[in-house]
Task: inverse folding
């Protein structure tokens, strides 16, 4: 199965809890800062915060019958004034997407036909005709990772697939019901800029790999959902590393760079008011995950649920 699918689903995961009430940064070994407990919901406090904020690992696609907003999550939401997603869902309407469409196209007149063999191009063209309302003449000029994301999204459209849901969508609905303000750690433009750091030829290979290996998607998706239900951040982080084993530069661009970029934004938001952060669970675990990075900054990050 392609790592791109896993990133979308993740992108999405008695241990040591390091705590520090001072304003200094942690000097412990990276392994000591990584989360060990099985939990998806975490409380962030210390370093001068007047009230705690919360961090929840999400999964972007999950069967409805296997998901419910926990009581601990509902309680945490009652203690904050804002919920922040990777991208603010209220900014994901048609007009916002339309404004950035020009940034989805490859530069220099590059096309998928130029990047792929005849066989691989025929495969992509066939799948586009089955899944997308946009013609191949348009999609073949788009960045291959955007095409992959579009085809995956259209194959698993939540409005059409009544059996599936998204943790972010459920939280957004709850936030609107409770009149909680929403925000985003990133913009659509930022996410599209990540694609520019990955060569088009590599993106094209990723697209073909995704389409060729989707026959194994069911088994891998079930494994991912199982790890999420077990609240196994270590397992999800290991699955992410496995997905990127052959392309570590892409893991750097899509996971680690984003984690680092989020930290100053998270810190600013926490200082402004108690905030509930909901990001892909694959971003939380490991020595370079969001939890470890917040602990490195001197914040106390404790497992809740």
Result:
């Amino acid at each position: 199965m392609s790592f791109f699918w896993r990133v979308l689903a993740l992108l999405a995961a008695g241990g040591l809890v390091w705590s520090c009430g001072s304003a200094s940064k942690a000097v412990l070994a990276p392994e000591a800062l990584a989360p060990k407990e099985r939990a998806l919901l975490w409380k962030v406090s210390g370093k001068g915060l007047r009230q705690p904020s919360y961090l929840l690992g999400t999964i972007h696609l999950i069967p409805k019958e296997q998901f419910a907003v926990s009581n601990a999550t509902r309680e945490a939401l009652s203690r904050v004034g804002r919920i922040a997603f990777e991208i603010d869902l209220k900014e994901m309407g048609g007009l916002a997407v339309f404004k950035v469409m020009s940034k989805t196209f490859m530069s220099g007149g590059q096309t998928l036909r130029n990047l792929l063999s005849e066989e691989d191009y025929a495969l992509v063209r066939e799948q586009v005709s089955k899944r997308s309302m946009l013609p191949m003449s348009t999609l073949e000029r788009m960045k291959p990772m955007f095409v992959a994301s579009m085809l995956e999204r259209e194959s698993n459209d939540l409005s059409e697939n009544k059996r599936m849901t998204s943790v972010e969508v459920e939280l957004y609905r709850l936030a609107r019901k409770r009149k909680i303000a929403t925000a985003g750690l990133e913009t659509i433009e930022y996410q599209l800029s990540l694609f520019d750091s990955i060569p088009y030829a590599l993106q094209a290979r990723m697209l073909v790999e995704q389409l060729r290996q989707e026959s194994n998607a069911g088994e891998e998706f079930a494994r991912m959902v199982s790890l999420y239900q077990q609240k196994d951040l270590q397992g999800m982080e290991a699955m992410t590393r496995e997905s990127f084993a052959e392309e570590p530069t892409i893991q750097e661009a899509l996971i680690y760079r984003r984690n680092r970029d989020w930290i100053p934004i998270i810190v600013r938001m926490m200082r402004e008011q108690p905030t509930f952060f909901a990001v892909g669970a694959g971003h939380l675990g490991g020595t370079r995950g969001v939890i470890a990075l917040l602990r490195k900054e001197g914040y106390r990050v404790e497992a809740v649920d």
Q: What stands out?
A: The chain has 15 helices and eight strands. The two ends are 30 Å apart (CA to CA). The chain has one domain: 6-60+79-282. Confidence is low (pLDDT under 50) at residues 1-23.
